[in-house]
Structures are given as C-alpha cells and as structure tokens.
Design brief:
The structure holds two protein chains of two kinds. Chain A contains 14 helices and no strands. By secondary structure, chain A is mainly α. Chain A has a single domain, classed as Orthogonal Bundle (ABC transporter involved in vitamin B12 uptake, BtuC). By secondary structure, chain B is of the alpha/beta class. In chain B, helix 6 links the parallel strand 7 and strand 8. The longest helix of chain B has 16 residues. Chain B has a six-stranded mixed β-sheet with strand order 6-7-8-3-9-10, with helices on both faces. Chain B is globular, with a radius of gyration of 19 Å. Chain B has one domain: P-loop containing nucleotide triphosphate hydrolases (Rossmann fold), CATH 3.40.50. The model of chain B has no long low-confidence stretch (mean pLDDT 93). Chain B is built from nine helices and twelve strands. The chains are: A mainly alpha, B alpha/beta. The interface between A and B is large, with 38 and 51 residues.
C-alpha cells in the first residue's frame, strides 16, 4: 500500500481540561444564582443562612432561599442538563445532528396535557402530572404508529412524530380558542412559553426522579449510542440489536424530556444547541460527549434563568430567552455547515 | 485441501414475500476471496444481506468452520461475519480510532465501554491498514479511500473469519481502488475469507480466488475467475458483447481486463 496520505483534516482535540472546568462551573454557578431574585436579599443574608442556619435575621430569608431559590436553581440546572442529554441521545438515534428532544412529540404532548388540566381548573400539581403523562403517551403513540409504517424505523418514527406533534398543536389551539381569556388563557400561554417561576420542592422532586433515571440509563448506554449513529445494518453487523437499544434510549430520553417539560414548560433550543456545542468541543464519542453536554446544558439554562429573573423588572419567560440565543445559533450553524 | 471454512447451501430470500435470491450455494476455504459479479438487481447485495442476516432467509443454511451459524444471536454471529459497507459521510465527527473500536462492541456487555485492550486492538488494526497516523482524525473528513480503509480496519478489529464487503471500490478513484485491492489481498493472506460484490468484471481477476456470477438471483457460474468468467458467460449475464483480454504488463505480470466490444 503505497499512496502517501495527506491528512485532509485536523486531529480532533482532546481538551482534557474541559470536564474539570465545567464541573467547577457547575458548582460555582448555582451558588451565585442563589443570590439572584426579586426579593432583595444581600449576599451576606444568603450566605449567612447557608453557612450558619436560620439563627438570626429576617424570617423571610430561610423561606425564600430554601423554598424558592434552591428548588429553582436545581430545577434550572436539571432541566438544562436533562434536555441536553435527551437531545444528544435523540440526535444519535436519528443519525441527525439537527434533531431536538421533541422530535417524537413529547413536548407538544405534554403541552396538551397541561392545557387540558388548566382548562379543567386542576391544581398545579395535577397540571404537572397530567403534562408528564400526556408527554409519555404521545411518544408511545408515535412509537406505535411508527412501527406500523413500512419505512426504516428512523424515518417512520420521525414521520409519526411530526404528525402527532401537529395533532397536539391543533388540539392546543382549540383549547386556547375556547379558554377563558381572563384567567385560563394567560395561564396556558405562560405555561407554553416556559417558565421556572412556579417551581417548588414538590414539583421539583416529581420531575427530578425521571430526569435522573433517564440520564443514568443513557449514561449506561453511552457506548451503544455511538453504534446507533451508524445505522441499523452496521450496528447489527457489529453484534448489537439496534432496535432494542433504540427502544431503551427513546424511553430514557422521553422520560427526561417529559420530566423537564412538565416542570418548566416548553423550553426550546437547549436540547438542539448544547449537544451540538459539546460535540464540537469534545468530539462525537458519547462517553465524553454526554457528561460534557449535561454540564453545559445545566450551566446554560441556569444562566438563562438568572437573566430571566434579573434583566427586567418583569420576569422574562425562559423559553423566550433560550430562543433568543438558539435561533441565531441555528442560523450560524446552517451557514457554517453550508460552507464546509 | 483443507476443510471447508464457509459452506453456503441453497440460500433463498428477498424482501417481504418477493424472493430475490433463488437458492445460491458455494463453499470457500480460509484465504479465499470470492467476488460476486452480475448486473444491477441480480441479487448481489441481497445475497450479502442474507448472509449477514439483515433480512430473513426463506431457506438455506450457512456453516462456518463446521459450526452451523443459522441460529446464532447477533452477538455471536458478529464473531463470524464482519461487514464493510459502502462508505458514506457520517454527520458525527468520530475519530478513526473510535470508529474501529466500535468493532469490539460484541465482546463486552451492553452497559460496558471498551477496555484498554480493545483500544490497543483497534490501534493495531489501523496500523495494519497503514492508518495509525490518522487515529485521532475525524472519519467524516477523510477521503473516500481512507474511510474505506478505516472500515476494513474495523472489520479486522472485529476478529472474524469472514469479511463481507459491499462494492468497496465503486465510489473510489483508480489509485484508491488499487489500494483497496491491496488491502483485500492482505486480508486473504492472513487467512480471512473475503466476500466482495463488485461492478467491475475485471476486479475478480485482480483479487479473487473464486468468482460467483449471478443473474436474476440464480448462479450462472462459480469457480476460479479464469475458468468461470468467460466471454460467453459475461455476454450472457450483462447482455452486451464482451471480451476478456489477457495481457502481460511491463513488469512481466499477467493481467486480465474486460472489454465491451
């Protein structure tokens, strides 16, 4: 074999410093974020409470920090990390780096579930649970419809997902149309925009369970996820069952997304943008990419939530903020890809 | 002659209810390279897919080193057959080493990741293909020939006795085609059985010890290329006037090429 090779590309950078840096950031950022909010608390008050307990001062401090800020900070981080991990997994499964976690309809399904619960006047806990159930059921339906189609599994799933997403959207529109414009409609609109303002300890714990479980499952499958990006035939020839792995991965990514959506509403772009950035920084291998995406997603959404709380007097819906970052990013991506 | 290492008997199958391959049989020894030749739609790719069990068989049996492999699960089938697809550009920037390492997946559990020895094996396979210097380069930015070699290295790393290649040279330029041919000869010298489907009727003369001529899912001829690939049979299969020409090149090596008249 004589022909000399002229390296066509540059070597993938190892960037061993990235994970430690992200880990440090993931510890510092939440602590800083605890100091941000509507109720004017000084850093001394917050830190005094965190370090010495509720011994002195303003009786509001423990309530605000423990019941509002800590759950909210954890929620922002968990949702960001979860959506990034779910997005990364879906992108690999569908061999398409432009896929986001709602590809199979989990977000719109959850949105519909929330709308139904809101128009029926259910409690906020029931809204969350209903959103979660609807999100999961939509994906089951997508999977069922997709497995009936006679295309390859990936194409069938994407087609079925698109169909069910639009169906759920139509149903949401109908509900918005008939909803009472004085109280229910604003509640629906606010929910659909995505916000962390209603997070409390109970709702956090309810969502944290599926997010953690799904993330753990995907982390365990991290090497197998690599093989799914090759397509079913190659994966089979390499000795694995792509359909089985994909089923588990879809399940895991779905409970993550459903958990995230039912807690924070429809927060877009994180699950598309973050895995992409992570892949660009550390390479495609899920063994390294998955932890990096999780930490980046967590930090990113926490930062967005800090901005949402502090930029204006009125809280900005976090979904609007992520879109403000996400959409330009997407356009940049398309232009860049077109070039290379 | 040694014991037969791959025996395929009466293999039938296709897509859905439509039978595309109508009972193909052949037997090969270690070190054999078999070229599958025939016009578009003759069932070359289908035959390979049946062997790899990507699609279900309607009949037939496959025996490998005396073991019947018809009912093995994927994990164990992957110890006998490795697959080298036509390359395409993946959207994901896996490095060459990572691509090759994926071949070890059938050797460890679902929740496990490659161990140090898997990495070493992957690196050795790349070295054999003279690609060690590209181990950390993204596969999807390599040239077509390099990508094909990475996939061959991956098949090597899977440590199977049979390698199945689907038209490995059809999208490559001339120099890269020769490079792949060299790689196939190297595999054969190591005692691997290599099955290659091809669109070039001259390629069997360059690399193959056996040729299988297919038309509409039926075997027209099977045997050493010089005996099976006659003018008459090639004309019959491709439906155009053809001639096999033997020439001696300036290195005094005899070569055969195919002409359409």
């Amino acid at each position: 074999m004589k022909p000399a090779f002229t390296p066509a590309a540059t070597s993938v950078k190892k960037r061993r410093w990235l994970l430690p840096v992200l880990l440090t950031l993931s510890l510092i950022l939440p602590l800083i974020s605890l100091n941000i909010g509507f109720y004017g608390l000084s850093a001394q008050q917050v830190w005094g409470y965190l370090l010495h307990g509720a011994a002195d001062v303003d009786p509001n401090v423990p309530i605000i920090v423990r019941n509002i800020r800590i759950p909210r900070v954890i929620a922002a981080f968990a949702i960001g990390a979860g959506l990034a991990v779910a997005g990364a997994a879906f992108q690999g499964m569908f061999k398409n780096p432009l896929v986001s976690p709602d590809i199979l309809g989990v977000s719109q399904g959850a949105g519909l579930g929330a709308c139904v619960a809101l128009i029926l006047g259910w409690s906020s806990a029931a809204v969350q649970v209903n959103a979660f159930i609807f999100g999961i059921c939509t994906v089951f339906l997508t999977y069922f419809v997709g497995s009936r189609a006679r295309f390859g599994q990936e194409v069938s799933l994407v087609l079925a997902g698109t169909m069910l997403r639009e169906l759920a959207n139509a149903a949401i529109t109908v509900i918005k149309y008939v909803a009472d414009p004085n109280d229910v409609l604003p509640a629906i609109t606010y929910w659909l925009m995505g916000s962390l303002s209603k997070v409390d300890t109970a709702s956090l714990l309810f969502s944290l369970a599926p997010i953690c479980l799904g993330t753990l499952l995907l982390f365990l499958l991290r090497w197998r996820l690599n093989l799914l990006t090759l397509g079913d035939e190659e994966a089979m020839a390499l000795g694995i069952h792509p359909r089985r792995i994909r089923l588990v991965a879809v399940l895991a990514a779905t409970i993550i997304s459903a958990g995230a959506v039912c807690l924070g509403g429809l927060i877009g772009w994180v699950g598309l943008m973050i895995p992409h950035l992570a892949r660009g920084l550390i390479g495609a291998d899920y063994r390294r990419m998955l932890p990096v995406a999780a930490l980046m997603g967590g930090c990113f959404l926490l930062l967005m939530d800090d901005l949402a709380r502090s930029l204006l007097v009125l809280e900005i819906p976090i979904g609007v903020l992520t879109a403000c970052f996400g959409a330009p990013f997407f356009i940049m991506l398309i232009i860049h890809r077109g070039r290379s | 002659m040694a014991e037969l290492d791959l025996v395929v008997e009466n293999l039938r199958g296709g897509y859905g209810k439509k039978e595309v391959v109508h009972g193909v049989s052949f037997a090969l020894h270690a070190g054999d390279v078999l070229c599958l030749l025939g016009p578009n739609g003759c069932g070359k790719s289908t035959l390979l897919k049946l062997l790899l069990r990507f699609i279900p068989r309607m009949a037939g049996s496959v025996t490998c080193r005396g073991h019947n492999v018809d009912h093995l699960d994927r994990r164990h089938l992957a110890r006998y057959f490795s697959y080298i697809p036509q390359t395409d550009r993946s959207s994901f920037p896996y490095t060459a080493l990572e691509m090759v390492m994926m071949a070890r997946s059938s050797y460890f559990g679902t929740f496990r990741t490659p161990a140090q020895e898997d990495i070493a094996l992957a690196y050795q396979s790349l070295e054999k293909m003279k690609l060690a210097h590209l181990a950390d380069f993204p596969y999807n930015q390599m040239s077509g020939g390099q990508r094909q070699l990475v996939l061959i290295a991956r098949a090597l790393c899977q440590s199977t006795c049979i390698l199945v290649m689907d038209e490995p040279t059809s999208s490559l330029d001339f120099a890269n085609q020769q490079m792949i041919n060299d790689a196939i000869r190297l595999l054969a010298n190591e005692g691997k059985i290599v099955l290659v489907s091809t669109h070039s009727p001259a390629q069997p003369f360059a690399i193959a010890s056996q040729a299988l001529l297919l038309r509409q899912g039926e075997t027209i001829a099977f045997g050493p290329p010089t005996q099976t690939l006659t003018d008459q049979r090639l004309e019959e299969v491709y439906g155009i006037p053809m001639q096999v020409v033997a020439i001696t090149d300036r290195n005094q090596r005899e070569q055969r090429i195919c002409l359409s008249l």
